[in-house]
Design a protein that fits this description.
single chain; 285 residues; alpha/beta; Rossmann fold; seven-stranded mixed β-sheet; two-stranded antiparallel sheet; 7 helices; binds S-adenosylmethionine; SAM-dependent_MTases_sf; Methyltransferase domain protein
Length: 285
């Protein structure tokens, strides 16, 4: 079956891994330290899946907070950022799988929790339903989906005072809102409905928290650095595909100025969200 995977527009080298791990830490800061949202009871959790796991930092850290007999399966289309198997806890297994394709039968309906984080740049109105169907199919009755992500369409520039320049950060925010002419994040507000209609099982939305980054001063520098590094990678990826690309040239020029503005007190704000949905068994009436 053909994958409708979109290209991953970031690097997978050691610097990109440092960025993902740093972003993991910044994310925990932003949401008060949880790996699993407090609305998910951990007492009955036996199996967890992490989709698009990257460096596997989330499953590895989660394994340290749960009982060692809980199985955690992490999936990514690429193993490039995985640690060696010998360096991950025995209850964490790293798999290779394209999440735009159905998961092997042995994983379907087996998980108490399925976790998705920072997958948004890979999704568009054409592939979103296929992705959601594949990940929701992994859940067993009573299982929970936790999806933590950024909403790039909320990207905006702010500054510590009106005289602080934020011209370049504003350009970066515009690029983030629409990185490619065909990019669309209009589906994000409908994510709860998309999740609910993805399966014949009944999915209850437990929470759909919006985390307004502007409310959290201490993590601003962390996120600015993550955005800068991420967009350096994005520009390099665009240039690698098309050296003459306008987007790559504009991004490169803008990023140098963005670094200067951010150091002087300009800020790029992007809201994050955490959606938790539970598969519920409908009572016969
Ligand atoms: C922005 S990273 C997020 C990593 C991790 N979830 C985290 O929060 O640290 C997105 C990840 O999705 C992976 N990915 C890209 N396309 C994929 C696909 N079709 N199926 C599964 N994973 C994919 C990338 O390799 C990358 O590791």
């Amino acid at each position: 079956m053909a994958s409708s995977s979109s290209p991953y527009m970031f690097n997978r080298d050691h610097k990109a891994s440092v960025r993902l791990n740093y972003q993991h830490w910044a994310t925990k800061q932003l949401c008060g330290g949880y790996l699993l949202h407090p609305s998910i009871p951990t007492s009955n959790v036996r199996r967890v899946a992490d989709i698009g796991t990257g460096t596997a930092i989330w499953p590895v850290e989660l394994s340290q907070t749960l009982s060692p007999d809980i199985q955690i399966d992490a999936f990514d289309v690429s193993r490039a950022q995985y640690p060696p198997n010998e360096w991950v806890p025995g209850n964490v297994k790293l798999h290779t799988h394209d999440a735009f394709l159905p998961f092997p039968e042995k994983h379907v309906g087996r998980y108490d929790v399925v976790h998705v984080r920072f997958f948004v740049t890979l999704l568009n109105p054409e592939n979103i339903q296929r992705f959601i169907q594949n990940v929701v199919a992994l859940l067993r009755p009573d299982g929970y989906l936790q999806w933590f992500d950024a909403n790039p369409s909320t990207a905006k520039a702010t500054a510590i005072n009106p005289t602080t320049s934020k011209v370049a950060v504003e350009k970066l925010a515009a690029l983030m809102r629409k990185p490619r002419p065909d990019s669309s994040y209009e589906w994000i507000p409908s994510l709860p409905e998309l999740v609910q209609s993805s399966s014949s099982s009944h999915l209850n939305i437990i929470t759909n928290d919006v985390i307004d980054s502007s409310a959290f001063n201490p993590s601003r520098t962390l996120w600015n650095h993550c955005h800068l590094l991420g967009y350096e990678e994005f520009a390099a990826q665009v240039a690698a595909r098309d050296a003459k690309s306008d987007v790559a040239v504009r991004a490169h020029q803008t990023l140098a100025d963005v670094a200067i503005e951010m150091a002087a007190g300009a800020n790029l704000e992007v809201d994050k969200f955490c959606l938790v949905a539970k598969v519920t068994i409908e009572e016969d009436t």
